[in-house]
Design brief:
The complex is a heterodimer of chains A (409) and B (414). Chain A is mainly α and 409 residues long. Chain A contains 18 helices and no strands. Chain B is an alpha+beta fold. Chain B folds into 2 domains: 92 residues, Immunoglobulin-like (Sandwich); 231 residues, MetI-like (MetI-like fold, Orthogonal Bundle). In chain B, helix 1 runs antiparallel to helix 14 and helix 13 runs antiparallel to helix 14. Classes of the chains: A mainly alpha (409), B alpha+beta (414).
């Protein structure tokens, strides 16, 4: 490592890596946005990035940093365009010229500006460990942002955009995710077909009903149980509190098989009643676990005061504990709602009748070679949007619920 | 006066509290017992039974009735026919009984010796039927004017038929063939190897990626909340939506990933990401990492934010470099949550079914133990073998959880 600890080595290396990262990102974005057959030009981007890094640390301290950043940005554009014979993305410039120019400018800005921050305080010669590691960390952080945003956003972007395309457009160019605004409402053809012919309005309703009922039943069962484990002293409490977690770890597929057999024989298959018998039980243990953790954190004195004033235990729970734990109830409800909404395996195994499908089961039905891809993606969007809206609106509760639900946190 | 002493044993108050506690817990306990413990016991039972998907339908007698001939006037005769059969080709049915309400105005002229009519109700006793038994029961009937004018048919009332048959599920025939079949040959070790690869690399990968995400977001800046929300998307979205999106994205013919790689010149031929042998397993593991890194990210971030910043300042004063601070201060502090997360995620990844099932259906060398349960029970219609695999999974799980609780009690004071 220490051999690398020179400004004139680290600066071009970081410049090269960052410039290539940005060139790829911008090229992919451009391809997705316009459908052009662009290539990023790694070589020129890398070389100009490395050069920019070198010039930057050489000139810092001699000239106004803003001026350096500006000049280098301009140089980068010229280099990229010039070295690739007037074709910054490997295709003639006159194909949607505005987007190409915009993309080159954006590339120059997002390359030079963060690079200047990364190389801030880096000198030409030998470096101490601090500034060297700081530069590396700043590079890794910036790279991390790009990396994570890309890996998270691309699948969702592809999902939404594919659902708006037509079959021919998809086959013609799989990279073209531009939106053809000329089609107007025709863009949403897949959605209107799903709601019109495939009954998705009904599936949405069923899923919503099942999820809300699951939340309701789960709370009804788990609140008293959680209270008992958190507050009351009785033999077997420790053992119970452990076995709850143990149950949470039983894989669903192991249970699904006997449940399938039992339901087949009892005639409960293909009924929402059967689904509502199972879903809450899969969520009760985790809800109980989350709630008892919260109840334990509540001050016991308030409840004792209530008991002294003549309230019964159940009245204490109803009038004191529950109002105090509304945030926890919100978290648990959201978490349970999410589990029920996203549940796939049981719905897939137990429901065969299309009039009783939940949304996830409905989407699974779309996965057939006779149904076009964009319908499947539109179904995926319909299944994702409600849970995302709920999640973004109540993100605070959701993160809390996730944290508490998954491990004692 | 006697000296006062503390009460011994459980007093009435304590007893009441215990009663109340069990009362409050009973709905949960009963439902869990019914839906979780009972199926678990059932799976052990089924795993030693020679039973297939088709055997689930108990052998049952079956009847179809119709009136042959076309009576037009009072006094005409016709033939009342019951087609009877044992629906099962393998099992006998004992003590078959049939009863049917005859419509008004229909009188049986010759009655079968096994049947009798009382009060317009025909009852027959057929005794025992062999597997696959079929017969036609025909009786001549005479109609009167009332039957013709009412327009009634014999099928207005359905013939009821019943018989005693034992379902395969409850007899005492046992076999260990399911287990020998499951453990037979290289296939089991293939499945086990795939499961281990998927579990180990999926778990470690999700932890490592989650840790990196937490590291870059462990700063206060505007937009941190938005990014944190965005990073949780893969976990929050329904698995069916994201799995199909990945399949679409990596499709060998119309997928964007292949198109992109081709265009950038990284590959010459489209790659079948979810269809080639070693690659498919890597892809499902990558999917697992992608989908579950948010969870470890969330926990690690929560733990990082609770670490006291004084320590870092002290280290800064002593001249520790950023990497040293991370390695010597953060990592030891995070060790607890990392190991708990590792164990939990390990168990859950081991249990994972939906993801692989949706991505590859267990093809192209991605069949894990959980997918094997489905494969054996439904694709190969051998419920017994599926249950045997489920039993194997459950035993592995017990092993893990013993380890888990030993460790958790130490780590978290559970």
């Amino acid at each position: 490592m220490s051999a690398l600890r020179y400004g004139f080595i680290i600066a071009p290396v970081l410049g090269l890596l960052w410039s290539v990262t940005m060139a790829t990102t911008v090229a992919v974005s451009l391809a997705f946005a316009t459908g052009l057959a662009v290539t990023p030009g790694m070589l020129t981007a890398g070389l100009s990035g490395a050069a920019a890094g070198l010039i930057m640390i050489r000139m810092f301290g001699r000239l106004n940093p803003k001026l350096i950043v500006g000049c280098l940005g301009a140089l980068l554009i010229i280099a990229q365009a010039g070295l690739r014979a007037g074709e910054p993305f490997g295709i003639p410039l006159d194909q949607s010229i505005l987007s190409q120019i915009l993309a080159v400018v954006i590339w120059a800005v997002v390359t030079i500006w963060p690079l200047s921050l990364m190389l801030d305080g880096i000198e030409w010669g030998g470096l101490d460990r601090h500034s060297f590691e700081h530069a590396i960390i700043r590079f890794l952080t910036a790279f991390g942002y790009v990396f994570f945003i890309v890996i998270v956003a691309i699948p969702f972007y592809v999902m939404v955009m594919t659902s708006l395309k037509s079959q021919q457009a998809l086959l013609a160019n799989a990279l073209d995710f531009s939106i053809d605004f000329h089609k107007g409402w025709g863009l949403f053809r897949s959605y209107s077909e799903l709601f019109g012919q495939f009954n998705f309005g009904r599936y949405l309703g069923v899923s919503f009903f099942v999820s809300v009922m699951t939340v309701f039943i789960t709370l009804l069962f788990s609140i008293p149980g959680a209270y008992a484990i958190a507050r009351l002293r009785f033999e077997g409490r420790a053992m119970l509190s452990r076995s709850i977690l143990l149950i949470y770890m039983v894989p669903m597929i192991v249970l699904a098989l006997p449940i399938y057999i039992g339901f087949s024989m009892a005639g409960l298959r293909n009924s929402l009643f059967g689904i509502l018998l199972i879903y809450p039980v899969t969520t009760i243990p985790v809800a109980l676990y989350m709630l008892q953790g919260y109840f334990r954190g509540l001050p016991g004195e308030v409840e004792e005061a209530g008991l002294m004033d003549g309230l019964s235990r159940l009245a204490v729970i109803w009038k004191i504990t529950l109002p105090l734990s509304l945030p926890a109830l919100a978290s648990v409800s959201l978490y349970v709602f999410m589990i029920a909404w996203n549940e796939f395996l049981l719905a897939f195994m137990l429901l065969d009748d299309p009039s009783k499908f939940t949304l996830t089961r409905g989407v699974a039905m779309l996965n057939s070679s006779e149904i076009p891809r964009q319908h499947l993606m539109a179904g995926a969007v319909i299944a994702t949007v409600p849970i995302m809206v709920l999640f973004l609106g109540l993100e605070r509760f959701m993160t809390k619920g996730l944290t508490a639900g998954s491990v004692k946190g | 006066m006697t000296a006062s002493s503390p009460p011994v044993g459980t007093g009435p108050l304590q007893k009441r509290e215990t009663r109340l506690a069990w009362g409050l817990l009973s709905p949960t306990l009963i439902s869990v017992a019914l839906v979780i413990v009972l199926p678990l016991l059932a799976i052990f039972w089924i795993s030693v039974k020679p039973i297939e998907l088709a055997d689930l339908r108990a052998p049952a007698p079956d009847v179809y009735e119709r009136l042959k001939g076309n009576p037009k006037a009072a006094g005409d005769t016709a033939v009342l026919e019951y087609r009877l059969k044992n629906a099962s080709q393998k099992k006998p049915v004992a003590n078959v009984q049939m009863s049917d309400q005859l419509p008004d105005g229909l009188t049986i002229a010759e009655i079968d010796p096994r049947c009798a009519v009382t009060d317009k109700r025909l009852t027959c006793d057929f005794g025992d039927w062999k597997p696959g038994h079929r017969e036609r029961l025909q009786m001549t009937v005479v109609v009167d004017q009332g039957f013709i004018s009412s327009g009634a048919t014999v099928r207005d009332t359905e013939a009821e038929i019943s018989g005693d048959a034992s379902s395969d599920l409850f007899n005492t025939e046992f076999t260990i063939k399911n287990f020998t079949r499951v453990f037979d040959g290289d296939e089991f070790f293939d499945v086990l190897g795939v499961t281990l690869f998927y579990t180990v690399f999926g778990t470690i990968g999700a932890l490592a990626v989650g840790m990196l995400a937490a590291l870059i977001l462990n700063k206060d800046f505007t937009g941190q909340g938005v990014l944190r929300g965005l990073f949780l998307f893969p976990y929050v979205a329904p698995v069916i939506a994201v799995a199909f999106t990945w399949v679409t994205l990596f499709d060998p013919f119309s997928g964007s990933a292949n198109a992109l790689l081709l265009q950038m010149g990284a590959i010459d031929q489209p790659i079948n990401f979810f269809g080639e042998r070693p690659l498919a397993l890597v892809m499902v593991t990558v999917f697992e990492i992608w989908r579950y890194f948010p969870l470890s990210f969330l926990f690690i971030l929560a733990r990082m934010q609770s670490i006291d910043s004084d320590m870092y300042e002290a280290a800064e004063m002593d001249g520790a470099s950023p990497f040293q601070k991370f390695w010597y201060l953060s990592v030891p502090q995070l060790m607890g949550i990392l190991s708990v997360l590792f164990l939990l995620r390990f168990i859950w990844t081991f249990n994972k079914f939906d993801d692989i099932f949706l991505l590859t259906g267990g093809n192209a060398g991605t069949r894990t133990l959980t997918v094997n349960v489905y494969e054996q029970a439904f694709a190969l219609s051998n419920i017994g073998a599926g249950s045997a695999v489920a039993v194997v999974i459950f035993c592995c799980l017990l092993l893990f959880s013993v380890f888990f609780f030993k460790f958790m009690s130490r780590e978290e004071g559970l």
